[in-house]
Specification:
Structural class: mainly beta
CATH topology: Maltoporin, Chain A
Helix content: under 10%
Number of strands: 22
Strand content: over 45%
Order of helices and strands: HEEEEEEEEEEEEEEEHHHEEEEEEE
Number of domains: 1
CATH class: Mainly Beta
Largest sheet: 22 strands, antiparallel, barrel
Mean pLDDT: 84
Radius of gyration: 24 Å
CATH architecture: Beta Barrel
Shape: globular
């Protein structure tokens, strides 16, 4: 009997996850030095645009939009809790078209709770954001313009797990993950994923040789579609050539019902290699023969005190929840935290430095132009990311390139969603570069260029679509008082193809921290 039959439906996971994160940060189990840090702020911005809905020619209409955003940030690295939680309520008021006025929540949390020292833990993730419904629609530079192609996306993950040791070098982990993903759009089905997994590994069971065993059983439930099942079992032989190089030989099997109602079983064979050239330089490669053909995951990273570069090339089955989680891998905060680890070994000191660095220079929170993929089914995603950040005392250069090729793995009538409704293959290519210069100790200037292109192939209508976007932004930010910042930015956007438009905007904002 499959283990998935024992995975019961849970109540409101979003409420559970947010409550757990809030309770975790509010717990009294901290010493004074480990107490969580809370910061509140209010941001007020005014956007004047000549094309609020990003429409073509005579349909373009201008508007002025006031947005008031009170926010709270909590972070901790002490006691039984580590992680951060950022939440903001955004009230947007449209001067000309009041029907567009609304209030919406944005939230991002990532935490770890130690339930039992060295034994039981709980990982928590939560995000509420505005995402593009389709890569073939208009691509807005904010959450206020081009609303016709935007939707509110909520993603919550609770993952309790147990870890232990056996023999002299063996490790064991048993984990249960529950994720809940929903949108405000009716064309994307609500999904809940429940996964039970177990991993056993002993890399030095026979000196420089070892073994590992990994099992996973999951079910994806939709609000108005059949369940999708997926299970796998992998065994690996491990060979440690030296402290820097390890090789893996993989054999196993997997089954799923992505393409048919009944589960179909297939074998897995593969090889992997991990090379830690230095504490600052790492390479990893994995190739497997899967049910969809060759699958792979290759990554490389190098960092120093002044720069970090990261590359990733993968081909694997994916869904909306996994797509949302992967977007957090290459953000400005995470890269700067890695770059300054040697300079600030203490987490709290490093965290304070990085947040002040981002605020003083007005850096974007997300590095990269890759977007979430909103689909009601499972899709095959082959993608490549290249991200780089270079810093100097007065300059910060950020550069990213992204390419994704996606095709539906579930049947056409099942994989309902904006990008897979009438086609089978989508290609996204994008790149962005930004330079921030510290003009004075309290004033910085930024200029950025973003290019995006999306293509549709294999359309059931016989018409393949494409869309191109070019966006240029420039602005200046200054500090009025130690807790008050102001900024002024101009933006020029142009879209061609399926949706053609031009837009010019001026955005002014003031942010006050308490």
């Amino acid at each position: 009997m499959k283990l998935r039959r024992h995975l019961r439906h849970h109540g409101s996971l979003p409420s559970l996850c947010v409550a757990a994160l809030s309770a975790a940060f509010a717990t009294p189990a901290f010493s004074e030095a480990q107490a969580p840090i809370f910061q509140t702020a209010v941001n007020v911005s005014e956007t004047i645009t000549d094309n609020v809905q990003l429409r073509n020619g005579p349909d373009a209409k201008g508007d002025w939009i006031t947005m008031i955003s009170p926010s709270v940030t909590a972070r901790s690295n002490g006691g039984r809790v580590s992680g951060n939680l950022q939440a903001a309520f955004n009230a947007s008021l449209y001067g000309r078209d009041s029907d567009l006025s609304r209030g919406f929540l944005t939230l991002r949390g990532d935490g770890k709770v130690t339930a039992w020292e060295n034994l039981a833990f709980v990982d928590l993730k939560a995000s509420v954001s505005q995402e593009a419904l389709s890569s073939l629609g208009v691509q807005s530079g904010d959450s206020l313009t081009g609303r016709s192609n935007q939707t509110n996306v909520r993603n919550f993950v609770v993952s309790p797990y147990l870890i232990g040791r056996f023999a002299s070098t063996g490790k064991a982990e048993v984990r249960y993950s529950l994720s809940d993903t929903d949108t405000s759009s009716t064309v994307v089905q609500k999904m809940q994923t429940r996964t039970l997994s177990a991993n056993l590994t002993d890399p030095n069971a026979f000196g420089k040789a070892g073994w590992s065993l990994a099992f996973s059983d999951s079910i994806i439930q939709y609000s108005d579609r059949r369940d999708l099942n997926n299970s796998s079992l992998r065994g690996s032989a491990l060979f440690q050539f030296n402290p820097q190089v390890q090789m893996r030989l993989i054999v196993g099997s997997e089954s799923n019902n992505f393409r048919t109602v009944d589960d179909k079983r297939s074998t897995i064979t593969g090889v992997g290699l991990d090379w830690v050239a230095s504490p600052m330089t790492k390479f990893s490669g994995l190739w497997e023969d899967r049910f969809f053909g060759p699958g792979y995951l290759m990554s490389a990273s190098h960092q120093s005190g002044r720069y970090v570069i990261s590359a990733r090339y993968s081909k694997d089955a994916s869904n909306t929840s996994q797509s949302l989680n992967s977007m957090t891998q290459f953000d400005t905060y995470g890269l700067l935290m890695s770059m300054t680890a040697a300079r600030f070994p203490d987490f709290a000191e490093r965290d304070a430095f990085v947040r002040a660095y981002i605020a003083d220079r007005g850096l974007p929170t997300r590095l990269g132009t890759s977007q979430a993929v909103l689909s009601s089914g499972v899709f095959l995603d082959r993608r490549i990311n290249l991200d780089m950040m270079v810093t100097s005392p007065r300059n910060t250069l950020q550069f990213t390139v992204f390419r994704s090729e996606r095709s539906a793995l579930t049947t056409q009538d099942f994989a309902l969603g904006p990008d897979f409704t009438s086609n089978t293959h989508i290609k996204d290519t994008s790149g962005s570069v930004s330079l921030t210069h510290l003009v004075t100790p309290i004033t910085s200037a930024t200029v950025a260029l973003t290019l995006m292109r999306s293509q549709q192939e294999g359309s059931t209508t016989g018409v393949d679509l494409s869309n191109r976007t070019r966006r240029i932004t420039a602005g200046v930010m200054t500090q009025f008082t130690p807790k008050t910042n102001g900024s002024l930015m101009i933006r020029n956007s142009e879209g061609k193809g399926t949706t053609s438009y031009t837009e010019n905007a001026v955005i002014g904002s003031v942010s006050i921290r308490f």
